[in-house]
Structure formats: structure tokens, C-alpha cells
Amino acid sequence: MIPFNARRVNIDAGTRCTLQCPGCIRTRFVRDNKRIPGKDLTVEQFKKIVDYFDEIGFCGTWSDPIFNKNFIQFLKICKYKNKPVEISNAASHKPIEWYEEAFAANKNAYWVFGIDGLPEESHKYRKNQDGVKLFNMMLSAKYSGLKVLWQYILFNYNIHNVEEAKKIANFHKLEIMFVESYRPYIDPELENVKLDDKHTKFEGNMGWNNIDVEVVKRFKGGLKPKCLLSDRDLSYSSTGHILPCCWANVAMDEKQMGPLFSDKLHIDNNNTVDDIVTSDEWKDFFFKLKTYSLDELPDTCVENCSKSLQNNHCCNKIINDERWQN
Ligand SMILES: C[S@@+](CC[C@H](N)C(=O)[O-])C[C@H]1O[C@@H](n2cnc3c(N)ncnc32)[C@H](O)[C@@H]1O
Ligand code: SF4
Ligand code: SF4
User: Fold this and answer.
1) How far is the CA of 251 from the centre of ligand 2 (A)?
2) In this structure, are 111 and 20 located in the same domain?
3) What's residue 26's pLDDT?
């Protein structure tokens, strides 16, 4: 058994989204006329996932989970199996009735709404989003008794509204999280900004939360694989594969990554997720991560997991203090 720290999974539930956020890999694919690989997660596939993992996350890589036609059923299954579930949603193109049904399907679900700025300005990054509608859906979830998080990525257009957003969050007793992004954008108008604010705290670098730094320092070799050394979630790719992290979702053509995307390891060809993560291909992959030099490893792994701990930010998260927590 490969010693993952926690049995959590980040699921890319399909290939569809109606937004065109300039920092999303899907927007790059669409711009380059590339097909988004994969299909909608089915109920049969989901049952295998839910049986293996203790916690379920619907965030993903190139889709918004609300567009999977089985999504409400997934929420019900999580409730029935008593598994915590977290959903990241930024697309707003589902009817209000659909949201009501989804919220009622599982009151223990934790919804994270991507509204980057005040609701009426969020579309400047979240292209095509109706931010006011999505904000109202967030309130509807909150006032129906669900736990919600307002995720606010900081940009040049919304930095001056941080205090106003906190006031609104405070009024509704919403949890709010400000995110410093380091992604590049096609849109020349957009700039990442940092927040220097005494009411916020630094949570840490993505992928390096809750780890024993001393253990990482002792790890030999050029790579410090977060899949083995941190509490990073495993991933389910819309191609039908379980992967060591969601960065791997886009690396199917990179060296050493191919076997993890083989037909043999497709979820439909395995009775359980355990069969996949204990397969020879998985053991071989981790053997290579531990022993191969950086130039023999996938670019994605080198890019995300070879930098120093201090210099390894992808997306630093800053969370409001207790006053804004539920
Ligand atoms: C592909 S999205 C999938 C979920 C959903 N469609 C959404 O956007 O929230 C994966 C994650 O990337 C985040 N994200 C999008 N643009 C980002 C950016 N510029 N910087 C940091 N995170 C970003 C999203 O908010 C979400 O948490
Ligand atoms: S809403 Fe999410 S999946 Fe859709 S384009 Fe934006 S970041 Fe990508
Ligand atoms: S990028 Fe590679 S080394 Fe890093 S967590 Fe993902 S699979 Fe592991």
C-alpha cells in the first residue's frame, strides 16, 4: 500500500463549463481548438470512488461539477454513505430550482463559491458568470443551513473592495477566503495582486499544508513529491483514471506518466480503487519519483514538486480570522 496521508480525492466530474476564466487550463484548450479529454463521471464509477475515499472533493481541472448530469445523485450518495463532500462552483448557468434541489440533497455538503470580487464585478475574471445570481445561491445555501465559503481571488480590479466584501461576509456570517494567485493570464487587463492586511493570516503554500517539514528535508533526491510527502489529495481525472494529484490530469503525454493513463488502470476495468493504487504501474511510478533524476521525470512533477519549500507558491491562500468564520 502506498502511504497516502489521507484518503481524499479531488474529482474532475466532466468536461463542461460555461465560463472562460483566463487562468483556467480549459480556456487555453478552447483557445487552441483542443478537445477537452474525457467524459462525465458515471454513478457506477462514483460508487467505486466513494467506497475507497473518506472525503470527496468536486473541484477538478477543466470542468465545473454542476454540469455533470448525475451530480445531485452524487450528493445523495455521499449523504447516504456519510462521506464529507466539498464542491467548488463558479459557473452560474443552472436554474435556481436546480440549486435548491442540490442544496436539499445533502445538507452536510460544503460549497465553495468562486466569486472574485463584489458580485457585480466578479465576471471581470469569471467571464460569462452572473455573479449576483451566484452570490444569491450562496446565500440561499447558507440560509438553508449549509456550510459555505466565499472564495475571492485577488485581482487589480477587486483589491479595493476587500473591506467591503468582508463587511458583507460579516453581515451574513459567511466564511470568506482571499486567494493570491500566481497564474499567468491571456487577458492583458488582469493582474494578480497581493493583500497586505492585518485582518488576514497566511495559511501556507498550496500542497505544503499540514506536513512535517523535517520529513521533507530528509527526503533524498531532487524531487519532493507532494503526493507522498504532504496531505495533497489524490485525483480522479475525467479520462476515467485515478492519479496521484490533479496536476497530473493534464500530463498524460509526459514521460513516465503514460502508464497511469493506461486502459488497464481505467476505473471501468478495475473492481476497486484499491486495485488501481496498489497496481505494479503505481508502485513503479513512485519508485521512479524516488529514484530518477529530475531530467527523467515528468515536467509537471519537476515544475510543481522540485522547488524549495519557501519558493514554492502556486496559489497562496489567506483566510479571514475567526470573526468571519461560522
Ligand atoms: C478548474 S476550477 C474547477 C471548479 C470551478 N469551476 C471553479 O472555478 O471554482 C479549479 C480551481 O481553480 C481555481 N481557480 C480558477 N482560476 C484561478 C486562478 N487564476 N488562480 C487560482 N485559482 C484559480 C478555481 O476557483 C477552482 O478552485
Ligand atoms: S469556472 Fe472553473 S472550470 Fe470553468 S473556466 Fe473558470 S476555472 Fe475553469
Ligand atoms: S506533480 Fe508529480 S510529484 Fe508532484 S504531487 Fe503530482 S504526481 Fe506527485
Assistant:
1) 19
2) yes
3) 96
User: For residue 306, how far is its CA from the centre of ligand 3 (angstroms)?
Assistant: 9
d(CA 5, CA 209): 12
Q: 281 lies in which domain range?
A: 207-232+247-310
User: Is 237 part of any domain?
Assistant: no
Q: From ligand 1's centre to the CA of 213, what distance in Å?
A: 27
Neighbours of 202 (CB within 10 A): 11
* 183: CB partners within 8 A, 6+ apart: 23, 192, 315
For residue 62, report the distance from its CA to the centre of ligand 2, in Å. Answer: 6
pLDDT in tens, 100-159: 999 999 999 999 999 999 999 999 999 999 999 999 999 999 999 999 999 999 999 999
Q: Which atom of ligand 1 is nearest to 91's Cα?
A: 6
Cβ < 6 A, ligand 2 pocket: 17, 19-21, 24, 26-27, 62-64, 90-91
Residue identified by cell 489524490 is: 234
Is the domain of 211 the same as that of 185?
A: no
What's 223's DSSP letter? -
Fill in the amino acid letter for 193: V
171 and 58 in a single domain? The answer is yes
Residues 105 and 145 in one domain: yes
For residue 12, which phi and psi values (nearest 5 degrees)?
Answer: -95, 105
